[in-house]
């Protein structure tokens, strides 16, 4: 017994149309003994080379991929918290820099006798 795989008049693979035949039976038109490899999105048969190939465009394949799940509320809150901590650290650094500048200005004004 051998499995044979069906394709249409344009040589497109027809999944689910496989049949099993006796080993010495004639192969009907539109069938082949060559099994399509796994992973084909739109398999197409090349009779001359006796092989299957991918005929789907990359755009079509990409359209079949699952859309990314929206970010969960917890993940969103974690990201917001991380962003706020980063902003706080930057604000603290600016305050420290401004304090140094003010201190330097006061010392200069003091040295010049302005204050």
The overall average pLDDT, rounded, is: 94
What characterizes the major β-sheet? 3 strands, antiparallel
N-to-C order of helices and strands? EEEEEHH
State the low-pLDDT regions, or none.
none
Number of helices: 2
Structural class: alpha+beta
Give the N-to-C terminal Cα separation. 105 Å
Rg, please?
Answer: 35 Å
Instruction: Report the helical percentage.
Output: 40-55%
Strand content: 15-25%
What coarse outline follows from CA principal-axis ratios? rod-shaped
The number of distinct β-strands equals 5
Largest beta sheet: what is the strand line-up?
Answer: 2-1-3
Kindly summarize this structure in a few lines.
40% of the residues lie in helices and 16% in strands.
Brief descriptors of the model:
single chain; 3-stranded antiparallel sheet; 2 helices; 115 residues; alpha+beta; two-stranded antiparallel ribbon
Explain what the structure shows:
40% of the residues lie in helices and 16% in strands. It is α+β, with helices and mostly antiparallel strands and 115 residues long. Strand 4 and strand 5 (51-54) form a beta hairpin. The termini are far apart. 4% of the residues are buried.
